[in-house]
Amino acid sequence: MTSIQLAQRGTGLLQVFNAAGVLAAADVHVALRLGRLGREQSEAALFATALAVRAVRSGSVCLEVRRMHEIGVDAEGTEESSIDPATLPWPDVEAVIAALRVSPLVCGSPAGPLRPLRLVDPVGSDAGPLLYLDRYYRQEETIRAALTERGASHPMVDAGLIRRELDRLFPDRVAAGEPPDRQRLAAALAATQWTTVIAGGPGTGKTHTIARVLALLVAHQDAVPGAPALRIALAAPTGKAAARLQESVREQAGDIGLPDLTAATLHRLLGWQRGGAGRFRHNEFNRLPYDVIVVDETSMVSLTMMSRLLPAVRPDARLVLVGDPDQLASVDAGAVLADLVAGPVLGQENPALAQVLGAELGASAAHPDGLSTRERDRLRGGIVRLTRGRRFGGRIAELAVAIRAGDADTALDLLAAGGDDLSLHTPDDIAEVRADVLRASRAATEAAIAGDAIGALTALESHRLLCAHRQGPYGVERWDRLAGGWVAAAGINSESGTGHWYPGQPLLVTANDHEARIYNGDTGVIVRAPDGTLRAALQRGTEPYLVHPTQFPGVTTVYAMTIHRSQGSQYDDVSVVLPGAESTLLTRELLYTAITRARRHVRVLGTEESIRAAIGRRVLRASGLRA
């Protein structure tokens, strides 16, 4: 039976909303299946069940029942739905809530112990009830309980030693009345908290701070007579992000006294087991053996993965979560980092932090750029946001701030003004994009033929073409073909027709091979080796990693990529292709992620309407962690 046939088995609201594109066939099928098992007859309750399934599929942890009409139409296909969700026959919200409060799917059924839904009224919130699939409710409760327990106490530290090490690692002291050095503050926080969240946008020095946090903790451990060496784990949600974290920390290690550290994916850290009953070797009954665990790119960590990680961390181990809460979140349900930064404070007062920093906190309070009352409150929960951009500044940084603040007028003014770092073009004005694609490809090919792997990679990183969609007129498939056609027509890759691989060929890895150190999302280029053979050069810190092309578990030629794929990467110039304003993929987080990939110049191909739509549309990821 096809998914379409399954959907057609629904009637009434389920059928109408499935036909409109709000509910997928899978949402309807799950709701009907649960209804049969739990003997639920209420159309309103079954409709809410389908919406709850749809919410998880769309990245939310739960359904905010009072805002159910805001979830919109799916945008998974190549075409946008022509149906306005506001015109659909949405049921009365209060009637839906009343039906859920007595539903056997929520309250239990005489037919059996099945209770697949949870209806929760958040304390201290006027958002109304949240409807969960039971699995995600339990995962959220696991995270909340672990963080609450970890915030109930603080490590014992030598405040004087911490201050001396901070002075060594952050020698540029802030003058009285100046904004505080938030990197120094983050390091002090990580030394005095069991759990620390370091949030910050691109170029704010997150990995610089990570290295100094580790150096501080190593020095503190080494000062204890007879103490064993500190056991440190570096992790990230993807192999690409783990490799980048490892290289960044290693590049700084010699200057600040760090040992040689290796990073791993979270799956590898926890010991993923194929077919194992517990799935991961490490859990609440078999904790990770580390004293310090640092997780980078935490914005991409899903609720499910975080609910696996936290119970596996020893209560007396420091956990440092690092990432940008304003970026696109995990493709799976949950936006845990953003929830932690925006949610309630889970923790007690930290007297050790005041002992370590002394007057530094008080001295900067009156400065306009100093710590706000809210920031001081967040410190109690172990949360600090890095704000000083070090990688780029000027109008790219101003544009990022405007987008993050939802200020469309300022963002459009910055783009319309043009200049060396920002420009706005219509989707048909592609002459400059074509010129940049050809320039980067020509330079990469020349370097690749000469065997200059670093030069070839640098050339490819000088420009990147990013799209919101995979398919359609604004999608990667079309723009990748278009750019490839430009390169072929210019005769840049003269050897491209002689075999599968050719010098200057830009690559995107699409599958992991941990043993070969090849990770999904890696980008690289084919170069000619001194012996005349071809090798693939992958970016790995200051030195490229060379592998034979046949080693790739999955790879494709790439001239354009999705904005999601670009997360964690940086390029000199970025061209961003925006879809029409009606695209539900077009969000503030997507636009922010795209423009912050650039170091020197951002070129936006889109209309004023699409930019306003993006900035005005937030990713709706409902969660109880913020309540």
**Fraction of residues in H or I helices:** 40-55%
Structural class from helices and strands?
alpha/beta
Major sheet details:
6 strands, parallel
The amount of beta strand, in percent, is: 5-15%
Mean pLDDT: 83
**Low-confidence runs of at least 5 consecutive residues:** 1-8, 73-81, 363-368
Instruction: Label the overall shape.
Output: globular
Distance between the termini: 41 Å
Counting DSSP H or I runs of 4 or more residues, the number of helices is 24
Biggest sheet: strand arrangement: 6-5-7-8-4-9
Assembly annotation: single chain
- Rg computed from alpha carbons, rounded to a whole number of angstroms: 26 Å
The total count of strands amounts to 19
Q: Outline of this structure?
A:
With 627 residues, the chain is of the alpha/beta class.
Question: Would you write up a description of this structure?
Answer:
By secondary structure, the protein is an alpha/beta fold. Helix content is 40%, strand content 14%. It contains 24 helices and 19 strands. The strands form 4 sheets. The protein has a 6-stranded parallel β-sheet with strand order 6-5-7-8-4-9, sandwiched between helices. Strands 10-19-18-11-17 form a 5-stranded parallel β-sheet. The radius of gyration is 26 Å and the shape is globular.
